Amino acid sequence: MPRHSLKSKTMILSVLRSGKKVKSGRLELFYDKVLPEKAENYQVAFLISGHAGNAVARNRIKRWMREDFRELQNQQRIDGSFIVRFKGSADDIKHKMLGEELKNLYKSLNPDA
Predict the structure, then answer these.
(1) CA 13/CA 30 separation, integer angstroms
(2) What is the pLDDT of residues 27-83, one digit of tens each?
(3) Of the chain's two ends, which shows fewer C-beta atoms within 10 Å, N or C?
(4) Does the pTM exceed 0.90?
(5) How many CB atoms lie within 10 A of CB 84?
């Protein structure tokens, strides 16, 4: 199974600076086009501030978002570099609500999807 993590600090900063950005509620989605050598593949990084909650809550949100990205990929082809930034508190967030918000953000980024 391929890894889809975006780990490089320079790549993350590049996507944050030059990527397309859409916002919705507690999430911001940054997108940059796919490099030709990485076609039909995606990379994603999840950014969650320490103010969102303790490590357990932040890791839970990251697991949920990774799962939601996998579901999105199973439904349609995803390629490019993505950064999902979570803002706010993790106290009253539900997985279903977060998943719907992420899907709506992706659809607003790609209206034909």
Answers:
(1) 11
(2) 888 888 765 455 567 788 899 988 988 999 999 999 998 898 888 888 877 777 888
(3) N
(4) no
(5) 24
Report the length, in residues, of the chain. Answer: 113
Which residues, in sequence order, are CB contacts of 21 under 8 Å at separation 6+? 28, 29, 30, 31
Task: Name all domains of the chain by residue range, CATH numbers in brackets.
Answer: 9-109 (3.30.230.10)
